[in-house]
Specification:
alpha/beta, 14 strands, globular, six-stranded mixed sheet
Amino acid sequence: MRARTAVPAAVVASGTATVAYASLIERTRWTLRRFDVPVLPPGSAPLTVLQLSDLHMTAGQRSKQEWVAGLADLQPDLVITTGDNLAGMDAVPPTLRALDPLLELPGAFVLASNDYYAPRPKNPLKYFRTDHERVLGDALPWQDLRDGMTARGWLELTNATGTLTVAGTRIAFAGLDDPHLQLDRYDDVAGPADPDADLRIGLVHSPEPRVLDRFATDGYDLLLCGHTHGGQLRVPFYGALVTNCGIDRQRVRWLHRWAQPSPGHPNGTWLHVSAGLGTSPYAPYRLACPPEATLLTLTAR
Protein backbone atom coordinates (compact mmCIF):
# COMPACT_ATOMS: atom_id res chain seq x y z
CA MET A 1 0.00 0.00 0.00
CA ARG A 2 2.82 2.36 0.80
CA ALA A 3 4.38 1.80 -2.61
CA ARG A 4 1.13 2.81 -4.28
CA THR A 5 0.80 6.08 -2.39
CA ALA A 6 4.44 7.15 -2.67
CA VAL A 7 4.24 8.18 -6.33
CA PRO A 8 1.13 10.37 -5.98
CA ALA A 9 2.63 12.01 -2.90
CA ALA A 10 5.83 12.75 -4.80
CA VAL A 11 3.87 14.17 -7.70
CA VAL A 12 1.87 16.42 -5.38
CA ALA A 13 5.02 17.60 -3.65
CA SER A 14 6.73 18.31 -6.96
CA GLY A 15 3.71 20.19 -8.28
CA THR A 16 3.47 22.26 -5.12
CA ALA A 17 7.16 23.13 -5.29
CA THR A 18 6.85 24.12 -8.96
CA VAL A 19 3.87 26.40 -8.31
CA ALA A 20 5.66 27.98 -5.35
CA TYR A 21 8.78 28.63 -7.44
CA ALA A 22 6.77 30.01 -10.38
CA SER A 23 4.71 32.37 -8.22
CA LEU A 24 7.11 33.37 -5.45
CA ILE A 25 10.56 33.34 -7.07
CA GLU A 26 10.65 33.39 -10.86
CA ARG A 27 7.77 35.87 -11.21
CA THR A 28 9.99 38.59 -9.69
CA ARG A 29 13.36 37.47 -11.08
CA TRP A 30 13.77 40.64 -13.15
CA THR A 31 16.04 39.96 -16.11
CA LEU A 32 17.72 42.10 -18.75
CA ARG A 33 18.00 40.36 -22.11
CA ARG A 34 20.48 41.62 -24.75
CA PHE A 35 20.55 41.11 -28.52
CA ASP A 36 22.52 42.62 -31.40
CA VAL A 37 20.46 43.39 -34.52
CA PRO A 38 22.23 44.25 -37.82
CA VAL A 39 19.74 46.77 -39.26
CA LEU A 40 21.63 50.05 -39.63
CA PRO A 41 23.24 51.32 -42.84
CA PRO A 42 26.84 50.22 -43.43
CA GLY A 43 29.29 52.34 -41.48
CA SER A 44 26.76 53.41 -38.83
CA ALA A 45 27.67 53.64 -35.17
CA PRO A 46 25.69 51.30 -32.87
CA LEU A 47 22.37 52.49 -31.43
CA THR A 48 20.85 51.05 -28.25
CA VAL A 49 17.10 50.52 -27.86
CA LEU A 50 15.49 49.52 -24.57
CA GLN A 51 12.20 47.69 -25.09
CA LEU A 52 9.67 47.33 -22.28
CA SER A 53 6.45 45.41 -22.61
CA ASP A 54 3.62 43.91 -20.57
CA LEU A 55 4.42 45.56 -17.26
CA HIS A 56 0.89 44.74 -15.99
CA MET A 57 1.69 47.13 -13.16
CA THR A 58 -0.19 47.33 -9.87
CA ALA A 59 0.38 50.02 -7.28
CA GLY A 60 1.98 47.64 -4.78
CA GLN A 61 4.66 46.21 -7.09
CA ARG A 62 7.50 48.30 -5.65
CA SER A 63 10.26 45.87 -6.66
CA LYS A 64 9.22 46.02 -10.31
CA GLN A 65 8.85 49.79 -10.23
CA GLU A 66 12.33 50.26 -8.77
CA TRP A 67 13.89 47.85 -11.25
CA VAL A 68 12.26 49.56 -14.24
CA ALA A 69 13.38 52.99 -13.04
CA GLY A 70 16.92 51.66 -12.62
CA LEU A 71 17.08 50.72 -16.31
CA ALA A 72 17.81 54.38 -17.02
CA ASP A 73 21.36 53.62 -15.81
CA LEU A 74 21.84 51.74 -19.10
CA GLN A 75 21.58 55.10 -20.88
CA PRO A 76 19.85 53.70 -23.97
CA ASP A 77 19.56 55.93 -26.99
CA LEU A 78 15.85 55.13 -27.40
CA VAL A 79 13.10 53.59 -25.27
CA ILE A 80 10.15 51.67 -26.73
CA THR A 81 7.11 50.35 -24.86
CA THR A 82 4.78 47.92 -26.59
CA GLY A 83 1.71 48.02 -24.37
CA ASP A 84 -0.15 46.29 -21.53
CA ASN A 85 1.33 48.61 -18.93
CA LEU A 86 -1.55 48.57 -16.44
CA ALA A 87 -3.24 46.03 -14.19
CA GLY A 88 -5.38 48.18 -11.91
CA MET A 89 -7.38 51.37 -11.59
CA ASP A 90 -4.66 52.97 -9.45
CA ALA A 91 -1.74 51.85 -11.61
CA VAL A 92 -1.14 54.93 -13.75
CA PRO A 93 0.74 57.06 -11.16
CA PRO A 94 3.16 54.28 -10.11
CA THR A 95 3.70 53.30 -13.73
CA LEU A 96 4.62 56.85 -14.68
CA ARG A 97 6.89 57.10 -11.63
CA ALA A 98 8.66 53.90 -12.68
CA LEU A 99 9.09 55.26 -16.20
CA ASP A 100 10.05 58.75 -15.04
CA PRO A 101 13.86 58.48 -15.51
CA LEU A 102 13.31 56.83 -18.91
CA LEU A 103 10.93 59.57 -20.01
CA GLU A 104 13.95 61.89 -20.08
CA LEU A 105 15.15 59.90 -23.12
CA PRO A 106 13.70 59.73 -26.65
CA GLY A 107 10.84 57.25 -26.74
CA ALA A 108 7.87 55.86 -28.63
CA PHE A 109 4.97 53.63 -27.64
CA VAL A 110 1.77 51.81 -28.51
CA LEU A 111 -0.95 50.77 -26.07
CA ALA A 112 -2.86 47.51 -25.79
CA SER A 113 -5.85 45.72 -24.30
CA ASN A 114 -4.63 45.79 -20.69
CA ASP A 115 -4.10 49.51 -20.90
CA TYR A 116 -7.73 49.93 -21.87
CA TYR A 117 -9.42 47.30 -19.70
CA ALA A 118 -8.72 45.87 -16.25
CA PRO A 119 -7.87 42.17 -15.97
CA ARG A 120 -10.49 39.64 -14.96
CA PRO A 121 -10.29 36.11 -13.57
CA LYS A 122 -10.11 33.59 -16.41
CA ASN A 123 -10.05 29.86 -16.86
CA PRO A 124 -6.45 29.29 -18.05
CA LEU A 125 -7.61 26.45 -20.29
CA LYS A 126 -9.22 29.09 -22.52
CA TYR A 127 -5.78 29.96 -23.87
CA PHE A 128 -5.67 26.57 -25.60
CA ARG A 129 -8.67 27.60 -27.72
CA THR A 130 -8.22 30.25 -30.39
CA ASP A 131 -11.96 30.91 -30.61
CA HIS A 132 -12.67 31.56 -26.94
CA GLU A 133 -14.91 34.49 -26.12
CA ARG A 134 -13.12 37.53 -24.72
CA VAL A 135 -14.79 39.22 -21.76
CA LEU A 136 -13.47 42.71 -21.11
CA GLY A 137 -12.95 44.14 -17.65
CA ASP A 138 -13.70 47.63 -16.42
CA ALA A 139 -12.33 50.55 -18.42
CA LEU A 140 -8.95 51.83 -17.17
CA PRO A 141 -7.75 55.47 -17.23
CA TRP A 142 -5.44 54.83 -20.18
CA GLN A 143 -5.72 58.42 -21.36
CA ASP A 144 -3.82 59.54 -18.26
CA LEU A 145 -1.02 57.12 -19.08
CA ARG A 146 -0.89 58.26 -22.71
CA ASP A 147 -0.91 61.92 -21.74
CA GLY A 148 1.82 61.37 -19.17
CA MET A 149 4.11 59.88 -21.80
CA THR A 150 3.35 62.31 -24.64
CA ALA A 151 3.79 65.28 -22.29
CA ARG A 152 7.40 64.22 -21.87
CA GLY A 153 7.95 64.03 -25.62
CA TRP A 154 7.39 60.35 -26.33
CA LEU A 155 5.88 59.55 -29.71
CA GLU A 156 2.45 57.88 -29.67
CA LEU A 157 2.00 55.47 -32.58
CA THR A 158 -1.61 54.32 -32.28
CA ASN A 159 -2.44 53.52 -35.91
CA ALA A 160 0.00 56.29 -36.79
CA THR A 161 3.39 57.04 -38.28
CA GLY A 162 6.12 59.35 -37.04
CA THR A 163 9.84 60.08 -37.10
CA LEU A 164 12.56 60.66 -34.53
CA THR A 165 16.21 61.53 -34.95
CA VAL A 166 18.16 59.68 -32.28
CA ALA A 167 21.92 60.01 -31.89
CA GLY A 168 22.08 61.28 -35.46
CA THR A 169 20.02 58.37 -36.83
CA ARG A 170 16.73 59.24 -38.52
CA ILE A 171 14.13 56.59 -37.64
CA ALA A 172 10.78 56.22 -39.40
CA PHE A 173 8.09 54.55 -37.26
CA ALA A 174 4.70 53.02 -37.87
CA GLY A 175 2.56 51.67 -35.05
CA LEU A 176 -0.76 49.91 -34.64
CA ASP A 177 -3.40 49.61 -31.98
CA ASP A 178 -3.88 46.16 -30.46
CA PRO A 179 -4.73 43.40 -32.98
CA HIS A 180 -5.78 41.21 -30.03
CA LEU A 181 -8.89 43.39 -29.79
CA GLN A 182 -8.99 43.91 -33.56
CA LEU A 183 -8.26 47.60 -33.09
CA ASP A 184 -5.43 47.66 -35.62
CA ARG A 185 -5.96 49.77 -38.73
CA TYR A 186 -3.02 49.03 -40.97
CA ASP A 187 -4.54 50.92 -43.88
CA ASP A 188 -3.98 54.10 -41.84
CA VAL A 189 -0.20 53.55 -41.99
CA ALA A 190 0.10 51.51 -45.19
CA GLY A 191 2.61 52.28 -47.89
CA PRO A 192 6.33 51.90 -48.47
CA ALA A 193 8.37 52.77 -45.40
CA ASP A 194 10.34 56.01 -45.74
CA PRO A 195 13.28 55.15 -48.06
CA ASP A 196 15.21 58.21 -46.88
CA ALA A 197 15.21 57.14 -43.22
CA ASP A 198 18.28 55.40 -41.80
CA LEU A 199 16.04 52.85 -40.05
CA ARG A 200 12.39 51.81 -40.24
CA ILE A 201 10.71 50.34 -37.11
CA GLY A 202 7.20 48.94 -36.74
CA LEU A 203 5.47 48.67 -33.35
CA VAL A 204 2.47 46.53 -32.44
CA HIS A 205 1.52 44.81 -29.20
CA SER A 206 0.31 41.42 -30.42
CA PRO A 207 2.56 39.77 -33.07
CA GLU A 208 -0.16 38.63 -35.43
CA PRO A 209 1.34 37.28 -38.67
CA ARG A 210 -1.23 39.09 -40.84
CA VAL A 211 0.10 42.40 -39.45
CA LEU A 212 3.77 41.46 -39.42
CA ASP A 213 3.57 40.44 -43.08
CA ARG A 214 2.24 43.85 -44.06
CA PHE A 215 5.02 45.64 -42.17
CA ALA A 216 7.57 43.44 -43.91
CA THR A 217 6.03 44.02 -47.33
CA ASP A 218 6.20 47.78 -46.75
CA GLY A 219 9.93 47.54 -46.01
CA TYR A 220 10.24 47.86 -42.22
CA ASP A 221 13.62 46.69 -40.94
CA LEU A 222 12.67 45.84 -37.35
CA LEU A 223 9.36 44.93 -35.69
CA LEU A 224 8.91 45.18 -31.92
CA CYS A 225 6.07 43.36 -30.15
CA GLY A 226 5.02 41.90 -26.80
CA HIS A 227 1.78 40.26 -25.63
CA THR A 228 2.89 36.62 -25.51
CA HIS A 229 4.77 36.74 -22.17
CA GLY A 230 7.10 34.33 -23.95
CA GLY A 231 4.51 31.68 -23.23
CA GLN A 232 4.70 32.53 -19.48
CA LEU A 233 4.76 28.82 -18.58
CA ARG A 234 7.41 26.99 -20.60
CA VAL A 235 8.20 23.29 -20.47
CA PRO A 236 11.93 22.47 -20.57
CA PHE A 237 12.99 20.98 -23.93
CA TYR A 238 9.54 21.84 -25.39
CA GLY A 239 9.01 25.54 -24.92
CA ALA A 240 5.81 27.57 -24.76
CA LEU A 241 2.54 25.71 -24.44
CA VAL A 242 0.51 28.57 -25.95
CA THR A 243 1.21 31.89 -27.65
CA ASN A 244 -2.19 33.61 -27.17
CA CYS A 245 -1.99 34.89 -30.75
CA GLY A 246 -1.18 33.71 -34.26
CA ILE A 247 2.61 33.64 -33.88
CA ASP A 248 4.27 30.22 -33.98
CA ARG A 249 5.68 28.78 -30.75
CA GLN A 250 9.27 28.97 -32.02
CA ARG A 251 9.06 32.77 -32.29
CA VAL A 252 6.97 33.43 -29.20
CA ARG A 253 9.86 35.38 -27.63
CA TRP A 254 13.20 37.00 -28.48
CA LEU A 255 14.87 37.88 -31.78
CA HIS A 256 14.13 36.13 -35.07
CA ARG A 257 14.06 36.79 -38.78
CA TRP A 258 10.52 37.46 -39.96
CA ALA A 259 11.25 38.11 -43.63
CA GLN A 260 14.44 37.16 -45.44
CA PRO A 261 16.16 39.64 -47.75
CA SER A 262 14.62 39.73 -51.21
CA PRO A 263 14.92 41.84 -54.37
CA GLY A 264 12.00 43.97 -53.22
CA HIS A 265 13.27 44.27 -49.66
CA PRO A 266 17.04 43.75 -49.71
CA ASN A 267 17.43 44.18 -45.93
CA GLY A 268 14.72 41.74 -44.85
CA THR A 269 12.83 42.18 -41.57
CA TRP A 270 13.84 41.27 -38.02
CA LEU A 271 11.25 40.59 -35.31
CA HIS A 272 11.74 40.93 -31.56
CA VAL A 273 8.98 39.68 -29.27
CA SER A 274 9.49 40.69 -25.65
CA ALA A 275 8.62 38.14 -22.98
CA GLY A 276 7.50 41.10 -20.88
CA LEU A 277 7.77 42.05 -17.23
CA GLY A 278 4.43 41.12 -15.72
CA THR A 279 1.52 38.77 -15.39
CA SER A 280 -2.17 39.12 -14.77
CA PRO A 281 -2.88 39.51 -11.05
CA TYR A 282 -5.10 36.44 -11.48
CA ALA A 283 -2.28 34.30 -12.93
CA PRO A 284 0.78 35.40 -10.91
CA TYR A 285 3.34 32.87 -12.04
CA ARG A 286 6.09 32.30 -14.58
CA LEU A 287 8.00 29.13 -15.27
CA ALA A 288 11.23 28.84 -17.30
CA CYS A 289 10.38 32.33 -18.59
CA PRO A 290 11.49 35.08 -16.19
CA PRO A 291 10.11 38.62 -16.49
CA GLU A 292 12.40 40.65 -18.70
CA ALA A 293 13.21 43.84 -20.54
CA THR A 294 15.47 43.85 -23.59
CA LEU A 295 18.39 46.03 -24.60
CA LEU A 296 18.78 45.80 -28.38
CA THR A 297 22.06 47.02 -29.81
CA LEU A 298 21.40 48.00 -33.41
CA THR A 299 24.49 47.58 -35.54
CA ALA A 300 25.49 48.15 -39.16
CA ARG A 301 24.39 45.58 -41.72
